[in-house]
Amino acid sequence: MIRILDLCLRLTIWFLLTADVSPGNIVIGVGVSLLIPWGFTPISPVLKDWLRTFGEILVAIPQAYIEAIEIMLRPHTEEEIVMERVKPQRTPGLIFLDIFLITFTPKTIVVKYHDDGWYEVHRIRRRRAP
């Protein structure tokens, strides 16, 4: 089941990059997705993490619109870089989705992923009243 989710994620990224869903491109995309090396992942808890992450993405979509409107109406002049811990036992696909989720919202972007389990996240915020 996890392999299918990884394959779907890879194909989705392929289609977003090529913007072409012709039969030839689908065949090439499946081939490329299968040629990319697979990592070892434990099966049981990972499915639950995938479903939770997809739920978080669905919540992030309206949040992104709200944040975009908020930035247009009230300027955000303060910025900071914070370190966020990667959730434990994340597969490379889930780490990618976490980075996507953080970067999807307009106020945050992942600047760097550290192999020891941290994200550097750049955030903007409104200036606090003195």
TrEMBL record:
It comes from Acaryochloris thomasi RCC1774. InterPro entries: Cation_antiport_E (IPR002758). This is Cation:proton antiporter. GO terms for molecular function: monoatomic cation transmembrane transporter activity. Pfam families: MNHE. GO terms for cellular component: membrane.
